[in-house]
């Protein structure tokens, strides 16, 4: 995340760029927004650096933005959208699969998984697009948390279908 922020800051030298986190890592996003305002920002974009629109993008980031707006009523503070399923991440993962020798092989895509059915559906969409990019004859998604099919359950599908080799890709940002 910090490396991405450095790239954005280098590309936009007239924009203050900082990183705040929602959980497990400091600094928290709210105090980072406060710091940007204290440094003179009259407008702040809180961009969730997540792939899919699940709980963090739909609930957590908007809550941080609402709290920050209460603390800084004269500042324009807006939430951004998740990265979503778009050409660039599909292309990056597709190239990675091809470079690893997985072109034309059945494809298992591992995604985080969430309680949000829209985000899980987007993971399947991403998998299908990566499969098309790499020429996979069969594509399955396995989730590493919260929902199913689990990675093990997804891998068992390949075994039941008689596939002895497959490519594996991860639909994770970090």
Q: Could you describe the 3D structure shown?
A:
The chain is α/β, with parallel strands linked by helices. The protein is 45% helix and 13% strand. A 3-stranded parallel sheet has the order 4-3-5, sandwiched between helices. Strands 1-2 form a two-stranded parallel ribbon. Helix 2 (29-38) packs across helix 3 (55-71). The longest helix has 18 residues, at 117-134.
Secondary structure layout plus pairing:
Elements: H1 2-11, H2 29-38, E1 43-46, H3 55-71, E2 76-79, H4 87-99, E3 107-111, H5 117-134, E4 139-143, H6 151-160, E5 167-171
Parallel strand pairs: 1-2, 3-4, 3-5
Helix pairs in contact: 2-3, 4-5
> How many DSSP-defined strands?
5
Largest beta-sheet details:
3 strands, parallel
Structural class comes to alpha/beta
Q: What number is the mean pLDDT?
A: 95
Biggest sheet strand order reads 4-3-5
H/I helix tally: 6
Low-confidence stretches: none
Beta-strand content: 5-15%
Shape: elongated
**Strand and helix order:** HHEHEHEHEHE
Radius of gyration: 19 Å
First and last CA, distance? 8 Å
Into which percent range does the helicity of residues fall? 40-55%
């Amino acid at each position: 995340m910090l490396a991405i922020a450095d790239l954005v800051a280098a590309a936009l030298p007239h924009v203050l760029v900082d990183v705040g986190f929602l959980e497990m890592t400091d600094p928290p996003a709210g105090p980072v927004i406060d710091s940007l305002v204290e440094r003179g920002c009259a407008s702040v974009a809180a961009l969730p650096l997540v792939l899919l629109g699940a709980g963090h993008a739909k609930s957590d980031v908007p809550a941080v933005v609402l709290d920050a707006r209460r603390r800084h009523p004269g500042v324009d503070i807006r939430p951004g959208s998740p990265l979503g399923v778009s050409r660039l991440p599909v292309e990056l993962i597709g190239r990675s699969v091809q470079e690893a020798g997985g072109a034309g092989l059945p494809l298992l895509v591992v995604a985080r998984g969430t309680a949000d059915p829209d985000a899980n559906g987007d993971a399947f969409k991403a998998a299908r697009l990566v499969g098309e990019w790499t020429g996979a004859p069969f594509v399955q998604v396995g989730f590493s948390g919260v929902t199913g099919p689990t990675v093990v359950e997804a891998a068992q599908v390949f075994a039941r279908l008689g596939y002895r080799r497959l490519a594996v890709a991860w639909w994770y940002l970090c």
